[in-house]
Amino acid sequence: MKKRQLGQSDLQVYPITFGGNVFGWTIDEQQSFEILDGFTAAGFNFIDTADSYSHWVPGNKGGESETIIGNWMAQRKNREQVILATKVGSIPGSDKKSLAKDYILKSVDASLKRLKTDYIDLYQSHYDDPETPIEDTLEVYDRLIRAGKVRWIGASNFSAVRLRTALETADRLGLPRYQSFQPEYNLYQREAYEKELEQVVVDHQLGVINYYALASGFLTGKYRSEADLDKSKRGAGIKKYLNDRGFKILKALDQVAEQYNANPASIALAWLLARPSVTAPIASVTSLAQLEDLVKAATLKLNVEDIAILDEASDWQ
Question: Domain spanning 4-313 has what CATH number?
Fold first, then answer.
C-alpha cells in the first residue's frame, strides 16, 4: 500500500478510511477495539467519525463513537500513529445542526474530551449551514488551528455551488480552506458527485473521502433479495438498491471479482480507488474477516477492461 496526500495538507493517509459510525451502534466497545486493532495492524492509519455518531441508536445521544475511539487510543497509546477525522454540526436539535462560532467552539472541546486527545487532524463541517456566514465559520476554524486544537479542515455534504463559494471565500480572505470533501459516492450513487462536485474538488485540489463507499453494504453482495435485509441492523437501508440497476451492478461486480479471486466489496472499493479524484473511500466492517476485503481493495489494480465493465453497469447518463 502507498500513502496518498489528502488535498494540499500534510496528511499522508493509506487508501481506505475506516468509518466510525458503526462504533456504539452495530458493534460494542470490545468489538470496536478488535476491529481497530486489526485495521491498524493491516497497515491503515485513517479513521473518520463525527460528534453525532451514533445518536440514532435508542439510548444514545451522540458522541459514542468518539468515546470508543478515544478509549482505544488511550489504551493503545497510539495517538501519533493515527490520523483522526471527526465532524461537527449534525446532531439533531434546533441549536445543534450549526456551524456558528460559539457552537463550534463548544463542540470541538467536547470532541477533544471524548477522543482523549488535544488535537484533531481533520475537523469537518458535517453539513452546510446557510444561516451562518461562511467567513464566520472559517474564522473560528482559523482560531482553532492557531490554538493547535485542529490541524486541517474539511467539508461534507455541501452542494457544488456552496463548496466552491467556501473555497473562494477562504482564498479571498486569507482564511483556512477546506482540504477535503466527503460526499456520498459509490458504484450505485454516481450522478450527484460526478455531475458537478467532482469538477470542484479537481479544480481546487481537494482530497476526497467518500462515504457509503459500499452503499451501506449492498455492494458487498450480501443483500440480493428482500429476504436478506434482516442480515444486519443496516439492512433496512438496503431496500432502495434492490432494483434492475442494483442487480446489474452486482452482476458486473461478480464477473470482475471472479477475475481477481476477490469479493465484490474489494472490487467496488478498487473501482473507487481507480478514480483519480478519490483519495481514500470510507468503509466499515463489523468483523475481522471482513477486514480482508479492505486490505485486498487497497492493493488491487483493476485493468482498463474491468473498469469499463463496472462503468457500463453503473452508468447514470
Answer: 3.20.20.100
